[in-house]
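Narrative summary of target 7.
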Amino acid sequence: MPAPSSADKIPERIRGLGRIHHVAVVVERMEPALEFWRDSLGLDLEVVAEMAQDQVRIAFLPVGESKIELVEPTDDTTGVARFLAKSGEGVHHVCFEVENLAETLLRLEIDGIELIDTAPRKGAEGPVAFLHPRSCHGVLVELIEAPGGPAWAALGY
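Modeled conformation, tokenized:
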């Protein structure tokens, strides 16, 4: 019988991802993007919000059990602004929901995944953390903790 792998020792609730919470699209300007996503495609606009700590303006548009997040940089020196300048408008990241963000980050770090955030931080819709694209085959991955998880109280939601 083969020896159990390190993955076999990790509880399934920590190993698995939940639903796709959202797909983020970087835009130069919010209004023309909303004209397409909201007006042309008919998606409902849930919220437009300034995220001062991240120096972006965001909008969420639900579609099915997931959302489209529009991200407009408000400062030319941020990572989002540099992404926009280099790559133009388009898909920026995909966000997956997890039950316990801190435990998931620890497991990923043990597995050798390069983390941008080593601990949960405040996001627009709950505790979040990012994984570096170098460890994700070129894709920026965001993780968000499911509502009511342990990081929610710790971060003052």
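The chain has a mean pLDDT of 92.
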